[in-house]
Design brief:
The protein has helices at residues 3-6, 19-38, 43-50, 54-61, 69-79, 84-87, 89-95, 99-110, 129-136, 145-157, 176-180, 186-200, 249-265, 269-282, and strands at 12-13, 65-66, 111-118, 169-175, 205-210, 222-228, 233-237. By secondary structure, the protein is an alpha/beta fold.
C-alpha cells in the first residue's frame, strides 16, 4: 500500500463513550510509540516504512484511531517485535465493534436458550455473509465501507453460538416476507435459503416460518429472549418497554407469552423446512 493510499484508509474512529475500547486503543498506541522511539525511527520514516501517512501514525499512537490488522502486521515487521504487536489485534478487533454489539455477543455467549421472532429481516445469526453485507448497505444514512465491514465482522463473529458445547437451544420464527425479500439479488437469496436449510438440520436449532396468510397473531417487529443457566433472562421487543432490554420477570413473562402464541401459530419445524425448500425452488 502506498503512502498516498493511506489517506483514503484512515482506520476506524474510537467511540469516546466506550471506556474499555478507549483504554485498549490508548495502550496499543502507546506501545507502538515506545517501540518506534526505541529503534530511533521518526514518525514520518515509520509511516513510509509501513505504507501509511505520518498523520495517521500520530493518531494511532495517540489513541485517536483504531489500527487495521495490516497496519499492526507491518509495524511488527518494521519494528522487529517478533509477533507481539500483531498479537494486539485480538483485542483491537473487538474494539471495532460497537459496544452494544459486543454486549449482545457476550450475552449470547452465555445463553442456554434463545427465542427469536423477526418480521422485517432474518435474525443476524441466520444470515450469510453476503446477505448481511447487502442488508447493511441498505441502511440510511448510508454506512461507509469501513463501517459496513466492521458491522459485518461483528455479526459473523457471533455465529460461534452455533458451535458451543454444550449447545444452546435456539428457536427462530421468521415471517414469510423475510424469506422472500431478495436482499442482494437472486443468487444471494438462493445461498441464504440454502444456508437456512443447513442450519435447520442442527439438532439444537428450530426454524419456523410464519406464513403471511396467518395474520392473527401478536407478532410485530422483533422479539428476542435470551435465557441463562442461572435462571435469569433478558429480552426485548420493538414495540414494548420503549424497545429497551428488560430482565424483570413480569416483563419477560409478557414476551414469552407473545412468543409462545407466535410459535404455536407458525408452521412446524418440518413444515417450515418444506416451505423453505419450495421457496428455494421458486427462486
Amino acid at each position: 500500500m502506498s503512502v498516498g493510499g493511506a489517506a483514503d484508509e484512515p482506520g476506524w474512529e474510537v467511540d469516546p463513550d466506550d471506556e474499555w475500547g478507549v483504554a485498549v486503543i490508548a495502550t496499543v498506541g502507546r506501545q507502538l510509540k515506545l517501540r518506534r522511539e526505541a529503534v530511533g525511527m521518526r514518525a514520518g520514516d515509520f509511516g513510509a516504512a509501513v505504507g501509511y501517512g505520518e498523520d495517521l501514525v500520530y493518531k494511532i499512537e495517540g489513541g485517536k484511531r483504531i489500527p487495521r490488522r495490516e497496519y499492526l502486521e507491518k509495524a511488527d515487521q518494521v519494528l522487529g517485535a517478533d509477533g507481539l504487536i500483531t498479537a494486539a489485534w485480538e483485542d483491537v478487533k473487538r474494539v471495532r465493534y460497537p459496544k452494544q454489539v459486543r454486549d449482545l455477543a457476550m450475552l449470547e455467549s452465555r445463553a442456554v436458550e434463545l427465542l427469536s421472532y423477526g418480521s422485517y429481516s432474518l435474525h443476524g445469526l441466520l444470515q450469510t455473509e453476503e446477505y448481511a453485507r447487502a442488508l447493511l448497505r441498505t441502511r440510511r444514512p448510508a454506512l461507509s465501507e469501513d463501517e459496513v465491514e466492521s458491522a459485518l465482522a461483528a455479526r459473523m463473529g457471533r455465529k460461534g453460538m452455533f458451535d458451543r458445547v454444550p449447545a444452546p437451544e435456539l428457536s427462530f420464527v421468521q415471517e414469510e416476507a423475510t424469506l422472500r425479500r431478495p436482499v442482494g439479488g437472486r443468487m444471494v437469496l438462493r445461498e441464504q435459503l440454502e444456508h437456512l436449510l443447513e442450519v435447520a438440520r442442527m439438532r439444537h436449532v428450530e426454524i419456523q416460518v410464519m406464513p403471511t396468510s396467518r395474520g392473527d397473531h401478536p407478532g410485530a417487529g422483533r422479539i428476542q429472549v435470551l435465557k441463562f443457566d442461572d435462571g435469569t433472562a433478558v429480552g426485548r421487543a420493538d414495540d414494548e418497554f420503549g424497545s429497551r432490554p428488560v430482565s424483570e420477570p413480569r416483563h419477560l413473562r409478557i414476551l414469552e407469552l407473545r412468543y409462545g402464541i407466535i410459535r404455536a401459530e407458525a408452521l412446524g419445524a418440518r413444515e417450515s423446512v418444506a416451505f423453505i425448500e419450495q421457496l428455494l425452488g421458486e427462486t
